[in-house]
Specification:
By secondary structure, the protein is mainly alpha-helical. It has two domains: 353 residues, no CATH class; 138 residues, Rossmann fold (3-Layer(aba) Sandwich). Strand 1, helix 19 and strand 2 form a beta-alpha-beta unit.
């Protein structure tokens, strides 16, 4: 009965976002991969580089497109449905551990947390994996004796679907399996439920191994192309980089996008003793330890895996932090905890629109919408003014111009790609001026303006070395270096885009036709 309510609420709160063109990794991988499966039935992407991501999101998207048609609003509606299913899993998980009031509050705070809110319409694999992971955890934590065997089977199914959505989702069931193995060593009974759970939690490895075997058979690579493997795994095995990532990931889990408000409030109320007459129970110790194991495992794993420190990788962890926070408030300050929940909700709502004082990925709040709108307007200007031009630009605009199905243009536009708009890349473009007629330049990340507080400025040297941080030149600077004219420019809340035209001198010679 709650699912329709959750879906309608998410759909209506995201209504103005449902027709936005595809964005960032949607455009770079997930939509092209699903588009290939939709048209040809191949699980291995043909029109984009294969990254060995499991194919369940492509299968679900293609199946939905057969019902809705290949339209952007249809895709975003499906993601709203998946997000609603994930929130229903959050409700079941929290209701199993605590009370209905805590569960409802946790669902509300999760839904409006800026990272979750932004991802609720974006067709990344992370929202699919988060939904199945949260349902798997809900079944795992429900240790009611009559339902234990059924819950083990359902948890196995959910965790298997999670890993078939995104390979890194295997971290959660494997971490729980290791925890069950420790508990089994303490209780060596052959009839111990820990042995059954150990088997159930390791089972999701089988479909993941089968997928990699199939991928190797078809492509010759197990974990995707060598560059993908280097960027996301092998190049990350540096002790100092891992230490930096652990710090960044800790901030992502506890402070990012105003998460510090509920976390700091929780730490504060922990100093308030529980009255002897307080009958409100804490989360059961075994369940709390299991949540701690999951959070610890994901914190460490995503500090090692992944070249980019994207917060959506941690998407299913935020509800776990919130349910612990909310239940702590309810138990420590039983009369005032709704006020703390309201304060946290206000902070989260502000974070959806107000950017923090440090650089972050646009997809962490509605900054991604500003970026999409700017790219739409710039590409529309190029289509109208320079329809036959070759455009110098960087990803993701290269995909936006090359692939009409992404929603930015109705015909492919030739591009001359560069990596970004830092000085070294612009100098490469200077060396080959004849390969492009127009440039589409834009902010590749969001960071505070020069006259504002920037808490991340002291980390720039390390971020440049380990996380591909760079400084984009301004449109005026780029135009000066490339000897062009800025013919269109726009800004939205710190995001910017510009079109630069290069007047070329063409030498023409009249050749007398030969007489025969």
């Amino acid at each position: 009965m709650l699912y329709p309510l959750f879906f309608v609420t998410i759909y209506l709160s995201h209504y103005r976002l449902l027709r936005l063109p595809y964005f960032w990794d949607e455009a770079g991988y997930y939509i092209p991969a699903a588009w290939d499966f939709f048209r040809t039935g191949t699980l291995i992407p043909q029109t984009t580089v294969t990254n060995a991501h499991p194919p369940l999101p492509s299968i679900l998207l293609a199946g939905w497109w057969h019902l809705s048609g290949f339209v952007i609003s249809g895709t975003r509606t499906l993601v709203c449905m998946v997000s609603a299913a994930a929130l229903l899993g959050v409700f079941k998980l929290a209701r199993t551990l605590t009370t209905t009031a805590v569960a409802a509050t946790t669902v509300l705070l999760t839904a409006i947390y800026p990272v979750w809110f932004a991802q609720s319409t974006l067709a990344h694999a992370d929202i699919f994996a988060a939904a199945f992971t949260l349902w798997g955890l809900a079944f795992y934590l429900d240790q009611t004796e009559p339902l234990r065997r059924r819950n083990a089977l359902l948890a196995t199914l959910m965790f298997s679907l999670a890993t078939f959505s995104k390979e890194t989702a295997i971290v959660t069931p494997v971490a729980l399996a290791l925890w069950e193995a420790i508990l089994l060593l303490r209780n060596r009974s052959t009839h111990s439920p820990h042995l059954k759970w150990l088997i159930a939690l390791l089972t999701p490895l089988l479909p993941l191994a089968a997928w990699y075997a199939y991928h190797y058979h078809r492509t010759g690579f197990v974990f995707g192309n060598p560059e993908f493997l280097r960027y996301n795994a092998t190049a990350n095995l540096d002790a100092y980089r891992i230490a930096l990532c652990l710090w960044h990931r800790l901030l992502h889990l506890t402070t990012h996008m105003n998460m510090y408000v509920p976390v700091v409030c929780t730490i504060a109320v922990m100093f308030i003793p529980v009255a002897a007459t307080n009958t409100r129970e804490p989360i059961a110790r075994p369940a709390l330890k299991a949540l701690g194991v999951v959070l610890l495992a994901n914190w460490i794993a995503f500090s090692i895996l992944g070249g980019a420190l994207l917060t959506r990788y941690l998407l299913p962890m935020y509800p776990l932090i919130l349910v612990i926070c909310v239940n702590t408030w309810r138990r420590r300050v039983p009369r005032r905890w709704p006020l703390i929940a309201a304060l946290s909700a206000a902070a989260f709502l502000a974070g959806i629109w107000i950017n923090p004082p440090y650089a972050f990925a646009p997809e962490d709040n509605l900054t991604y919408r500003d970026m999409i709108v700017l790219h739409q307007r710039a590409i529309r200007f190029i289509d109208k003014t320079y329809p036959q031009a070759t455009v110098l630009t960087a990803w993701p605009a290269t995909s936006e111009l090359n692939r009409p199905e992404l929603g930015y243009t109705n015909h492919p536009v030739k591009t001359a790609p560069i990596q970004n708009f830092a000085i070294d890349q612009i100098q490469k473009a200077v060396a080959d001026p004849g390969s492009y007629d127009v440039a589409l330049v834009f902010s590749t990340k969001w960071e505070p303006p020069a006259n504002r507080i920037n808490l991340g400025r002291h980390n720039e040297s390390a971020d440049t070395k380990y996380f591909d941080f760079h400084r984009d030149l301004s449109p005026t600077e780029i135009a000066g270096l490339l000897h062009g004219d800025v013919v269109w420019q726009a800004n939205r809340k710190g995001e910017w885009a510009a079109v630069i035209h290069f007047p070329r001198i063409v030498e023409a010679a009249l050749i007398q036709p030969q007489k025969h």
